Amino acid sequence: MRVGHGTVMLPVPAGTPMGGYLDRPGPSTGVLDPLEVTAITWYDGHRRFALAVADVICVNEDLAARARAAVPEAGELWLAATHTHAGPETGCVPGGAPTPQPWRDLIAEATRAAVLRAVATERPASGQVRHGELREVGGDRSRPSGTPVVPLDVLAVRDPAGRTSGVLVVLPVHPTVLPAAGRLISADLAGAVRAALRARLGPRVWVVVATGAAGDISTRHTRRGTDRAELDRLGALVAERCLELLNPTAPSPEPEGVGWAAERVRLGRVDGNGDPEALVAALRGALAEAVAGGDPVAVRMARSRLDGARVLTGSAPARPTLDAEVGAARLGGVALAALPGEPFLGVRDLIRASRPEPVLVLGYVNGYPGYLPTADAYARAEYEVLAAQAAPGSAERLARTAADLLHELDERRGR
User: To 10 degrees, what angle do helices 394-414 and 345-353 make?
Assistant: First the structure.
């Protein structure tokens, strides 16, 4: 197996409309930290697979298609968003929307450049996956009293001598440390983790941070601030836990071969959330009551519900059908699943429970159908459910499809 890595900066000029928050006071005014498009390629001598991760709010299907067409050198390409809420607006509307220019072309060209750089640096390598718990960084944002713990997955890429040449981190936490009032461009938590790991691993080791199934997970109840210092603090916590998981470092033999599979899944649409305007009015009243009560947690929860209802009033017209692409890949001994939109963390758990061996589950890949809550979450009137376009059971359908595709790849490898 040969593995390569390439990174391209994604410049964002001042005055760019920013994505992520409905009540942003204006366009960007500068850059807090630069955005990147980073690619990893795997090549077995016959087939090549590329994973590209872009510091944007979402990747719509038209952008994914444009990027794939731009990189015929990749036999298969997954384009994932880190989901930073401090980047350019790329058409992040529940159910999907066209990607505005110039970002569709700029991101696609940056992806092409990153993939070609990765291809040029491909060297013999093996992969080693580590899994563990990450505490005090992210938790269920609708449950302030819950334990702030999430799963953390780390893939170490090692050269034939066993030295680490690169690290892929899959972090199922919303990168939303910076506030809605902020107007500086930033990769937010994903960028902070990258910077912290690069500082600890040194310039010879590349680092990629992808966002996992983070639909209901954020730093809302763990962050102590909303500034650069808090990004550095949380980034350091994640980096230190990654280093713990990467020890011991002894490489293990793994099978060769690259394979992938994908399938489009038809998702049911919600029957409707009643009168959105009336819902917004009611939730405004609930927010006012929370503010008057003085409980900061109640205020945050009420504001979250109001934001979800506002999405309903401002989103694009619903398409008559809603479908999305699910992907699976087998890269030597490493298994990956790609889910579109914002799957809840429970979707990852369903995929993992279906397999005897672990799999890295990425969210925000190759399309944006919006939030994908697990069926039980629809009983709660939280932001994600109010804004969801997919009907109950859709997330479970995606999980089953991913599990089936991975099983097919396992069978192919066993033949």
Answer: 40
